[in-house]
Amino acid sequence: MKEIKSILIANRGEIALRVMKSAREMGIKVYAIYSEADRTSPHVRFADIAICVGPPPSNQSYLLGDKIIEICKNHQIDAIHPGYGFLSENAEFVKKVEESGIIFIGPSSKSMEIMGSKLGAKNAVKKFNVPLVPGTESAIRDISEAQKIAEQIGAPVLIKASAGGGGKGMRIVHDLKDFEEQVQLAMNEAKSAFGDDSVFIEKYVSSPKHIEIQVLGDQYGNVVYLFDRECSIQRRHQKVIEEAPSMSITAETRKKMGEAAVNVCKACGYYNAGTVEFILDDQGNFFFLEMNTRLQVEHPVTEMITGIDLVKEQIKVAMGLPLSFKQEDLSIRGHSIEIRVYAEDPTNNFLPDIGKLIVYNRPLGPGIRVDDGFDEGMQVPIYYDPMLAKLIVHAEDRKSAILKMLQAIDQFEIVGVKNTLDFCKFVLKHSEFNNGKFDTHFVQKYFQPEFLKQETTQLEKQIVSVFTQMIFESKANSTKSTKNLEPKKSLWKFNRLK
Known about the structure:
Layout: E1 6-9, H1 13-25, E2 29-35, H2 42-46, E3 49-54, H3 65-74, E4 79-81, H4 91-100, E5 103-104, H5 109-116, H6 118-125, H7 143-153, E6 157-161, E7 171-173, H8 179-194, E8 199-203, E9 209-217, E10 223-235, E11 238-244, H9 251-268, E12 272-280, E13 286-292, H10 299-306, H11 310-319, E14 335-342, E15 344-345, E16 351-352, E17 355-356, E18 359-361, E19 368-372, E20 379-380, E21 387-395, H12 398-411, E22 413-415, H13 421-429, H14 431-434, H15 442-446, H16 449-476, H17 487-496
Parallel strand pairs: 1-2, 1-4, 2-3, 4-5
Antiparallel strand pairs: 6-7, 6-8, 9-10, 9-12, 10-11, 11-14, 12-13, 14-21, 15-16, 17-20, 18-22, 19-21
């Protein structure tokens, strides 16, 4: 066993703070890195020691792998936790960490390399009878040959970047006469985004649900699955609302998906925490999509329904400890929902917003959790992902969890930047979300910016009403002394308006 006494969190914001809290509870010294834009961030203040790594752009700070390793050597830091994003799935960086003798809290560089390529992952898992979507088994080199395969599969087909993610390098082709043009566009985008123009094709599953399985393995070949998460509410191929467990699958399917996810781990000798993603068609069939070789943004909902701290388990596995529980020890307790609160304008195609958090009050109460990296008065920078916070609730069942989340949204006060709270409220109130008859196209099918603009107009009327009342009170009391005025009471009413 390799004891870990100190950890550098190679990340920022909410995930850096979240990892630090668990590490601290284990008696581990925590180091933060930060860019000049994050100098006053909560994760910097929380750390035992914080070190500036460069200017705001991530390629001059958080992506400087060699500098991060050098910092660890200079401060004799035992381990690195990458969080998610940035260097978390960079196999080359992980290999350098391994060679330096520093412990990487995550999978091996070899596993990461296999699963980092969608084509490599598909080729690895097919030997373990993991169900795959029909498509090409290698990157497209001859477009005319790929056209023939597409015709055999039948429209619609999906073109995907092998090294891709976040919807980049992805094209849906409904009419195969457009196939060649769309392949070229996908290749160009993949080259620009990932430095790799490899793309492949597969049958496009219409009305799909996005279901993922949380896995955890140790360095002795023991692997368990910590059940499933429903991640179908997305915008621009990125998740906005997640919940656990999914109401879309039966107990039998849940078991089959979990066992398939374990087989994916065995296909690449995987250990530590990871997520295996599947798509589910309208007939209940599921197919392997990809594996994320890191801690997911939405991991809190799994923690809520299992009672297991995934970060602590990651650290234990990295130390070389075996898993302390088996599959039969795990059970689902209640229901959990997470919304991602982005600094985005849902009425303007979810355009990111920046500015100062004039008001920032978190909701409180039993079964309510907020993972964030901001405080009131802070600036929301332009350089990074626009997520402000993750709001998570837990209740005895899905209906109760939805109601608790709606109440928590109403209590979450954010003034200064546009955000997605009202959009999430729209989703949670929608009949198709409540009855579970939704898929990854929910936003395109049901959301229109006008829905939120109408609510904004009503809010503006409320604000005008409050200001009118304030002016009336001021005039009515103009003959009285200033000390008898009550502006604080009126302002309190205004600040509470949503």
